[in-house]
Amino acid sequence: MRDVSKIFHMGSMLSRIRITAVEHVSFRVGPGEIFGLAGESGCGKTTLARMILGFEEPTSGTIALRGRDGQPIVGRRAWRRAGVQAVFQNPFETFNPLRQVERYFFETVQNYGLAGNRAEALERIERALQMVGLSYEAIAGRYPAEFSGGQLQRASIARALLSEPSLLIADEPVSMVDASIRMSIMNLFRDLVDRLGVSVVYITHDLATAYYVCDRIAIMFRGNIVAMGNVDKVLMEPKHPYVRLLMECVPQTDPKKRWRAKVQLSASETEEYLRAGCKFAGRCPHAMDICKQEVPEEIYFEGQMAKCHLLRVSQGVQ
Ligand SMILES: Nc1ncnc2c1ncn2[C@@H]1O[C@H](COP(=O)(O)OP(=O)(O)OP(=O)(O)O)[C@@H](O)[C@H]1O
Ligand SMILES: [Mg+2]
Questions:
Q1: Which domains are seen in the chain, by residue range?
Q2: What is the pTM of this model?
Q3: CA atoms of 178 and 180, how far apart (whole Å)
Q4: Would the CB of 42 count as within 6 Å of ligand 1?
Q5: Which residue among 6, 18, 19 has the greatest number of ligand 1 atoms within 8 angstroms of its CB, and so is best to mutate?
Q6: Is residue 38 left, alpha or beta, with left meaning phi > 0 and alpha meaning psi from -120 to 50?
Q7: What are the C-alpha distances in Å from 191 to residues 50, 185, 195, 196?
Q8: pLDDT tens-digit profile of 8-30?
């Protein structure tokens, strides 16, 4: 993604406001990489995902995609098929309760022209289901309610894999499944990346699973990527004040340190979106005058990027 922005207009004709839900965002996801996109509710994660999926046009900027063979994927249809597929939060919403799950598989094969006849279709479906630890026999004739949340999420991942996409966008894929099987789904993503070379954009509020599974991570705040880099660096040696506050909210193993929630949710979402200068300045414990006036630049420092005035001042980084 290069310099991608998305502006939404809200309100009535008389009091229209513009929200830049995604603001000058640039990043690259490499082949076979799990890239995390984290941040609190309403920071623009899903808007970003919908643009990558082609459901929403960027207001400005460009998004380019390469296939697993390294060739650019051009054209909307190819983009939607072999380019990028989605795994959503709630598998029970992905599948209509009144339709057998297997029908989605046959329909996808047919829509994308992935097989010439039923035998070929079955072979392809079996292969995708095997990749997630299921089989055609295990899903045949069954309705969504006959699956556990974890099984159904595996099935939705298998359906996304049918067209052999180069990229999977997983928007909160484990927040609705039981904690006990959350890790097995996260391990499945890791396994798919290693075996198929597919790339994954993993969108989440949950920094613990992000730390567990991601190679690199970007932290968003009100439409901006405020920190980005290797997950170890960004989360364990956070440079941006927002990331430091977020990390203090992650449950610690030490029960005394659990949930030391320090992030204050004072300013309203819209107020923050419309703020000049750094959007985080209203909540930042270190905010300076310049933060309220000028948008900070991206500073690259010790293997990570942070968009923060403080770094330039305190570290003398240019
Ligand atoms: N179609 C739309 N029209 C107007 N505003 C929108 C639209 N879609 C999203 N927004 C606004 O853009 C901002 C970002 O929303 P988005 O859904 O991308 O956040 P998110 O990070 O995915 O949040 P969550 O974690 O709750 O899913 C919000 O202020 C939201 O209200
Ligand atoms: Mg969302």
A1: 28-236 (3.40.50.300), 238-318 (no CATH)
A2: 0.90
A3: 5
A4: yes
A5: 19
A6: beta
A7: 25, 10, 6, 8
A8: 988 777 778 889 999 999 999 99
